[in-house]
Task: inverse folding
């Protein structure tokens, strides 16, 4: 009887420790694992410039698969890549911070998937992005 | 005479436009460190997606940062930061809006590094406070590099740190800001 209780306690402690270790080493969320909302860059930018609050409730922190044309490519200070997609309004763009460093991209049509982090000075910002196509 | 007046006013408008110099970037870098003195783990994160505008004519300076674009080494910390401390679903953005107080000391047409005194309103976690931040502005051709380092009290911005993690998360956060802006 005593042995059984001891074993149960031991098992519980083991589960606790394992969960702790797992939580501590929990991997970052990957956008590939999430179902993305498919949208055109122009439409997304328009929604954000029209009503940021309403757009946030629809898109903030969600995985977004955005289709568009590359307008500009910028390097971040840590060597990452920021892709800016074309929209109808230069002041209201869609910016995508890519997850992988050292990506070589050619201008043209592209489909990018990333997490929406919100509206930033008139633009929509996606982060941890990957190229779908 | 009327024509002359029109020409003069047109010329004046053109010159104003020429001197209405705005510098911008959307790839500024901000990092913070809120590690408590004896914490075994570092509480720090980096955001490489800072939007920053400096108006050389008026001295207006704006920074905007999205909370969800802060990257931590550990996902668990990133989750706690977003969900518990910063409530980024409710307050997705932090912002600084201010002015360079000693604008006359900064010559945007001459290469060099200038000390800037900046004051304005800092919004974090939905709370807005007046702050004074010293920094440097380095001018090189048509680019401007802005640097600042300052500290904020988490308590001032209603960011509650539970007692359980008080030995890890400090009462203050040191914020380091760097923007490389180009003329637009």
Result:
């Amino acid at each position: 009887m005593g042995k059984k209780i001891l074993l149960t306690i031991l098992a519980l402690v083991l589960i606790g420790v394992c969960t702790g270790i797992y939580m501590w080493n929990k991997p970052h969320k990957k956008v590939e694992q999430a179902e993305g909302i498919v949208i055109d860059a122009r439409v997304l930018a328009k929604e954000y410039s029209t009503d940021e609050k309403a757009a946030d409730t629809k898109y903030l922190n969600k995985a977004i698969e955005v289709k568009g044309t590359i307008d500009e490519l910028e390097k971040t200070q840590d060597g990452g890549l920021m892709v800016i997609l074309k929209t109808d309004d230069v002041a209201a763009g869609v910016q995508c911070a890519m997850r992988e460093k050292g990506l070589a991209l050619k201008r043209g049509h592209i489909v990018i998937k990333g997490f929406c982090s919100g509206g930033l000075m008139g633009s929509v910002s996606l982060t941890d992005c990957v190229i779908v196509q | 005479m009327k024509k002359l007046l029109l020409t003069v006013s047109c010329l004046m408008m053109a010159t104003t436009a020429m001197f209405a110099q705005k510098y911008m970037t959307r790839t500024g870098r901000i990092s913070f460190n809120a590690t408590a003195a004896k914490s075994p783990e570092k509480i720090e994160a980096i955001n490489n997606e800072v939007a920053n505008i400096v108006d050389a004519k008026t001295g207006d300076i704006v920074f905007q940062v999205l909370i969800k674009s802060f990257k931590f080494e550990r996902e668990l910390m990133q989750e706690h930061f977003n969900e518990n401390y910063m409530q980024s679903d409710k307050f997705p953005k932090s912002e600084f809006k201010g002015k360079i107080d000693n604008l006359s000391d900064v010559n945007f047409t001459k290469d060099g590094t200038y000390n800037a005194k900046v004051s304005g309103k800092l919004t974090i976690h939905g709370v807005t406070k007046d702050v004074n931040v010293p920094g440097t502005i380095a001018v090189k051709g048509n680019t401007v590099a802005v640097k600042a380092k300052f500290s904020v009290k988490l308590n001032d911005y209603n960011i509650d740190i539970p007692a359980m993690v008080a030995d890890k998360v400090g009462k203050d956060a040191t914020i380091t800001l760097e923007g490389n802006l180009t003329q637009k």
In short: The two ends of chain B are 36 Å apart (CA to CA). Residues 2-19 of chain B form the longest helix (18 residues).
